[in-house]
Amino acid sequence: MRLINHKVLAQLEDSFKLNPDTSKIFIVGLGTTGFSIVRFLTHYHFKFTLIDSRTNPPMKQQLLAEFPKIKLITTPLKNIDFSKATHLIVSPGIALNQVAIEAACINGVRIVSDIDLFSLATDTPIIAITGSNGKSTVTTMLGEMGKAAGKKTAIGGNLGIAALDLLYKKVDLYVLELSSFQLERTSTLNAAAATVLNISADHLDRHKTLENYIVEKRKVFGGDGKMILNADDPNVIGMKIKNRKCSYFSLHQSQGFHIKVKENHNYLAYDKRYLIPCSDLPLEGKHNRANALAALALGHAVGLDIDKMCFALKSFKGLNHRMQIISKFNGIEWINDSKATNIGACIAALESYDDKVILLAGGDAKGAKMEELRITAQKHVKSIILMGKDADLIENALNNCIPTYHASSMVAAVEFAYKIANSGDTVLLSPACASLDQYKNYQQRGNSFIAAIMALESR
Length: 459
Prior knowledge:
Blueprint: H1 6-16, E1 25-28, H2 31-43, E2 48-52, H3 60-66, E3 72-74, E4 87-90, H4 99-106, E5 110-112, H5 114-120, E6 126-130, H6 135-148, E7 153-157, E8 173-177, H7 180-183, E9 193-196, H8 204-207, H9 210-218, E10 226-230, H10 234-237, E11 246-249, E12 257-262, E13 265-270, E14 273-277, H11 286-301, H12 306-314, E15 324-327, E16 333-336, H13 343-350, E17 357-362, H14 373-380, E18 381-387, H15 391-398, E19 404-406, H16 410-420, E20 426-429, H17 442-457
Parallel strand pairs: 1-2, 1-4, 2-3, 4-5, 6-8, 6-9, 7-8, 9-10, 10-11, 16-20, 17-18, 17-20, 18-19
Antiparallel strand pairs: 12-13, 13-14, 15-16
Helix pairs in contact: 6-11, 6-12, 11-12, 13-14, 16-17
């Protein structure tokens, strides 16, 4: 365990009036983030109460084993008396517009996030990454780039390890993936370099409007670090802050990190310098070129060597459940893109194909409209098989532009796709929706897709 850092305590007091002797803190929500907050506050001897609306929240037994004296209350939030609280630290999965939380805020209780605590607890440079699509890919790319450049690099946040749990490692660089839910309650982040990769409609069931969603994403640019902007996305360019240092990445414009053509070959480039041929990238698709350019721009902003970053890109194989090649059984290519949990991610995946694919889609659309999918589907989809809660919503949005079928399960969808596919076809699972209507998470959904394919092959 690290020694008590009194500078951190001073910063917590100065920014949030958080004091181990006087603050009365409620941690709202167990799970990975809640557990990391428990560890952090316990280390600094803060008094707190942990609450969760679920009778048997995840990680409960692990919590009680590691912290047997922790006070854990499991009851709906409406039953909690926050009148004596000074601070709430609310896990990202819990909406802030719940009556009990709003009432506490009206009474002067301060909202603090785990990202606030993290940013005040370290002087190590932070790269912060958000956006509708590509966050995990770019975060992981940067982790590999940092290591290739000789930096002890830790990645986490919304991906893998909770941010606060990264503090227990001695590192040179933190790379954080941040969701809109994390950012909406964060006010002290001051990353050395930050980006919003792109904007498309997502999580509108929580944020209600695209404008609200953009407001939360913009918070990644808090502080005075370098802004890395997607020159191809008007919503991102609109976030530019006057007098802040900016760098750009683009697939279509010749500024910052971009694409250059030489002898009929596309290259990743920086200003006038050709870096590596796009054909050297193991990941296919235009969206992955944009991800690579964004990662290069972010790494360059914190001083990583460009040649070493390019070396890392050449060996980066991508993430599970993100455009993952599963099989080429009987001449049919099966691709798992279960991580495409919004319409923008699905469109990006489809646009990486020249030939039309058989698309498996559906799930929980999270309040998003699906009409935007129609134009891309007409151009890139041979037929679509729909599943889940919002299958009818997607079918209505497509308006008979392509052959549309329904399946009651992943197994049924894979079986039908195999039935209608020809040798040379691609079957792409890219749902454009969240998975929680049918699965625990997108990983479980992707694994069910893989299992169904393996069952086909074993016959």
